[in-house]
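pipeline: protein-struct stage 2 | run 1193 | Carbohydrate kinase FGGY N-terminal domain-containing protein
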Amino acid sequence: MAELTMGVDIGTTRLKAGVVDEERALIHAEATATPWRITDEGPVVDVAELGDVVIGIVRQCAREVAALGHWVVGIGTTGMGETGALLDAGGEPLAPGFAWHHTLGDADAVQRALGRDRFAAVTGHGCDLAPSVIKLDYLRGMGHRFAPGQRWLNIPEYISYRLTGEQACEFSLSGRTGLYDLRGQCWWDDALNLIGAGTWLLPGDPLPAGAAVGKVPSSIPEVAGAVVTTAGHDHPVAAASVMSPVPGTLCYSLGTSEAQLRVVTADLAEEQIRALVAIGATVDRHPNGEAWYVLGTLPTGLTLERLAALLGRSDTRERLALSREAMTVERAPGARLREVSLDGFDIVGVTSGDTPAGLWLTAVESLLAVSDGLRDEMSAVIGAPRAETVLGGWTHDPLVMRERGRRGQRATDNSPLEPGIVGAAMAAAKASGQVTALWQ
């Protein structure tokens, strides 16, 4: 019987659990939709239900690999940042989990209280709607009173808690809260005071990926005894599955969102941090606990998905066929995309002679030009990257990869189908003692 590790990836769209062998090959995976509930004010999730669903797919995945003669000895959790679970003293949720893109909260009020530049310099983030402190301040404004015994866990940390009964926080996820002092390496008292809380709201100092949170009890028999670690924020964890997270590396994660992840040394000056935040990037401590990482995001994949649907090519196979056709045509000369954002985009300059394939080529080229611009803006602050790679669903698109390849951006030969699962499972291998080094 082989002793293997499992990665659990709590994504915005899907919940996934998969078992990985010693060669980082995915043996089996289970997945289901993330159970968001759409309200008039935005998407929320019942965190207790979310935990139940994740435990269910963990158990099912473990049963499947047990039938193949394998046993899970370690589990790593990763997933979305900002969304979390506010728990009472008994570990029960006190509020729903708000999506990271939820529009509730008054970021301007928090910004006035803490200062825009100060917030950026301390946390490495912009004072927008994403950081968890905005939602916690919203709860305070709605009458919630924080008190000792209550706890805030980011969602992957909450899943680790549900698996072990132990509460602990992790570096990269802690940074997404807006409550962590990046340079001081401690919780930010001013932000906690703003919401009427203290450091007791968080379960101690953050741990690096690969540090054991606890073991799964016998009440979850399929994985009983497995060592659990919180691997961290999904973007750096996925990137670590294909390249060692050493300073100077750049990974493009090409999903619905394009994420450019730069690993840097943990010594950026305040001026550099503020400059990165000003261009829309974030700076956090890497899950390995040693380096930092800079994250810039663009709605590249989302925009292409919307355009494909507009062109009647929403099916994946139809979209791939459109890309193959676009590789043999001229771009639509006058057409261009404008005002590209998470909310949508405009198309202008389309003429009667333009074709869907030509418009598609134009869109891909223009979106990659924006991607180049973001990379160059980050490089102006922290220097050019020494190594680049790509991963994610859009690496299967021939046109996108032709254009990426022309820029020297290529997938590695061992790029996994589920990089988040694999990266988390690699952290679990460290926690369970199967390997001595993390993400080498």
